[in-house]
C-alpha cells in the first residue's frame, strides 16, 4: 500500500513521495528483521525415504531468493527515498522538472495560504 501511495505522491509532491518510498523500504527491512528474529535457531530437518528405499533424503529450510530480494529491495527503496528527499531540498526546480511537476503550483499554494 505504501508503494502505491509513493507512486501517486511522486507525481504530485516529490518530497512526500520520497518519504513514502523510504517508508516502504524501512517497512521491508523491518519485515526481514522480524522474520530473522522469530525464526527458530534450530534448523528444521524433515526426513523422507528415497525412491530406492535404502537411504533417507533430508528436507531442510533456508533463506530463499524471495528473502534476499525483499532485503535488497528494502535497502534500495530506503536509499532512493533518502536520495530523492535530499535532492528535493537542494535542487527543487530540477527535481520538479524531472518529474514533470509545476514548481509554481506548490509555491502559489504556500504563498496564497499565508496571505489569507
Total number of strands: 2
N- to C-terminal distance: 35 Å
Principal-axis shape equals rod-shaped
Taking the sheet with the most strands, its summary is:
2 strands, antiparallel
What percentage of the residues does DSSP assign to strands (E)? Answer: 5-15%
Structural class: mainly alpha
Gyration radius, rounded: 23 Å
SSE topology string: HHEEHHH
Count of discrete alpha- or pi-helical segments spanning 4 or more residues? 5
Give the oligomeric state of the chains in this entry, treating copies of one chain as homo and distinct chains as hetero.
single chain
Describe this structure in words.
The protein is mainly alpha-helical and 116 residues long. It has one domain. It has five helices and two strands. A two-stranded antiparallel sheet has the order 1-2. Helix 1 runs antiparallel to helix 2 and helix 2 packs antiparallel against helix 3. The longest helix is centred in the C-terminal third of the chain and has 26 residues. The relative contact order is 0.16. The model has no long low-confidence stretch (mean pLDDT 87).
Question: Which helices and strands, and how do they pair?
Answer:
Layout: H1 2-10, H2 14-38, E1 45-49, E2 56-60, H3 65-90, H4 92-99, H5 103-115
Antiparallel strand pairs: 1-2
Helix pairs in contact: 1-2, 2-3, 3-4
Characterize this entry briefly.
With 116 residues, this protein is mainly alpha-helical. It has helices at residues 2-10, 14-38, 65-90, 92-99, 103-115, and strands at 45-49, 56-60.
